[in-house]
Every structure is written in C-alpha cells, then in structure tokens.
Amino acid sequence: MKVVITxxxxxxxxxxxxxxxxxNDISEVLSIGRKSLGMxxxxxxxxxxxxxxxxxxxxxxxxxxxxxxHSMGVSSASFGKEDYFKMTYGYTLTLAKTMLNVxxxxxxIYVSGQGTDSNEKGxxxxxxxxxxxxxxxxxxxxxxxxFRPGGIIPIKGAEPSSKLYKRMIKGLSWLxxxxxxxxxxxxxxxxxxxxxxxxxxxxxxxxxxxxxxxILALSKA
Length: 221
Description:
The chain is α/β, with parallel strands linked by helices and 221 residues long. The protein contains six helices and nine strands; from the N terminus they run βαβββαβαββαβαβα. The chain has helices spanning 11-22, 81-102, 125-137, 163-182, 190-203, 212-219, and strands at residues 2-6, 28-33, 44-48, 67-70, 107-111, 143-147, 151-153, 187-189, 209-210. Strands 3-2-1-4-5-6-9 form a seven-stranded parallel beta sheet, with helices on both faces. α1 (11-22) crosses α5 (190-203) and α5 (190-203) crosses α6. The longest helix is centred in the middle third of the chain and has 22 residues, at 81-102. The protein is globular, with a radius of gyration of 16 Å.
C-alpha cells in the first residue's frame, strides 16, 4: 500500500508517519509539506508544496496512492475566523478533491477531534470541522473516515511542532498517563492512531466517525 501523509511535522502526523514507515504492508509514503522533514528513509518521498489552497499543479505527483492520511491542523486560537476556515476547511477539501480525482479508489482519512459538531451549528471550530467532515464524506470516496482522538500521548519521538504545546504536553504527561489508567478508552497514543489508520484503510470499518475507543480497537486489528 502507498500512502500520502500531511502534517508530518506535527505530533499526530509524525506519529502516523513513523508507523507507516515501520509497517510491512506500506511500500511508500509521500509526505506533503511546506518544508523538508529532514528525514532519510527508503520508503519516504517528500513533496515540498508551498500553497495548500491548490493541488492541481502537483496532481500528477499524487497519482498511484491508495490512501491519504490528512493530519494537518491549526489552532482556532491562533487565527481569525476567515483564515481558520480557509486552512481547516478550504485546504482539506482542495486536497481531498484532488486525491479523489487522481485516485478514485483511494481511502481518505481526516483527523478532526473530539467535540466536532456534525450538525454544523454555531460559528466556532467545532462547526467548521463538522462541515469539513460532512463534505469529505459527501465527495464519493470508496472509503472515508473521520478520526476524532481525544487525549493523545506522543511516543516514539512524535512531538508537537508548537513550542508552547510541546511544553504543555511535557508538563501534563503525568495527567494523560493518569487519565489513561482510569479511563483507558478515552486516551490514545500516536502509534495507535497510525496503526488504526493503516488497518482501517486495508480492512474497512462499519463506522465513518472514529472515536478513541474505535482507534484502540482498530490499532489491534
């Protein structure tokens, strides 16, 4: 299986990337980003792409892939409403439409998050991500899944790209581990997210909205 990954410079995307590179069934990984990851691996290819508002200029380089794991995301607290909508909804749908056009039999996975509003009510991030999920599901992919992890424990070298978030994760690692102990179905780690994405792409699943409990089950499939 050949996969495309976005957001590999971030915590979730890096975790997914590492699992894909280690997995025997993954023959090639194409990481799309604005700058190089600075990694060398025989399975890894990189596509440096500066403008995520369009993918037509690189669509030929996306041909032949079986799945796209779209792990790129931004914080609504860091951007105004228009920019957040463009980067969360606009970039995602543009990539999804291009992937579907050049790989009509592919699987598309979008990482949104717990609290996403499928009813698209309100004007906050939850409604934007709900609209993003709904419109991806309406595009006509052979398979499309919306991953909604809750608390995430970074492992195997995966870590947030934001210095502030990195300090927060390190400072609260004890809390995440404690929560994992008392509520094991609500906390996942980055490796489990990656394994779940690979397994669901290969085997399918009965649900399109994937919660932490589903991620844990799929990571063992």
